[in-house]
Design brief:
Distance between the termini: 32 Å
Shape: globular
Largest sheet: 4 strands, antiparallel
Strand order of the largest sheet: 3-4-5-6
Structural class: mainly beta
Number of helices: 0
């Protein structure tokens, strides 16, 4: 992964612990971070924090016991989709910029590895959606509207 930084002229190389899941302003400082990043070694989530001077600093955001499949960033929170295991269902986890788990919600086994965080239904509030084969899980304004069979997310 290539980033331009102020530490050395030209291009710096940063080791990437896993897949980049989303880019957004997680810290709320007006500059985008590359977060969340699937941290395969720690089985959790990391973030490349924007230091405001053209550089990015990699740090652990949360150790979740599983490497996420997908993610999104909106309004200072990271949303990650964790895969199912033999003992645990797939989950949507909301994380604060501090790494604190704000919310966990089990999702359908037929959920696709996609997380969308945007204003989807015209009410002016953030919605988080995970498409699935036959329905989608939509969570809006801090409360879940649950699975919505047949609902089309535009």
């Amino acid at each position: 992964m290539h980033f331009n930084g102020g530490t050395v002229p030209g291009t710096s190389l940063h080791p990437l612990p896993g897949a980049v899941l989303a880019v957004g302003d997680l810290s709320g400082n007006g500059s985008p971070e590359t977060a969340p990043v699937a941290d395969v070694g720690r089985r959790g989530v990391g973030a490349f924090w924007n230091n405001g001077q053209g550089g990015l600093v990699l740090s652990v955001l949360a150790e979740l016991g599983r490497s996420p499949l997908a993610g999104a960033v909106a309004l200072g929170a990271a949303y990650v989709l964790l895969p199912a295991t033999e003992r645990l269902p797939s989950e949507l986890v909301a994380l604060a910029a501090s790494g604190q788990v704000l919310r966990r919600r089990a999702v359908s086994a037929d959920a696709l590895p996609v997380v969308v965080a945007a204003e989807l239904d015209g009410d002016g509030l953030l919605d988080v959606a995970i498409p699935a084969k036959w329905n989608s899980l939509c969570c809006g304004a801090g409360r879940s509207s649950g699975p919505t069979p047949g609902r089309r997310v535009r």
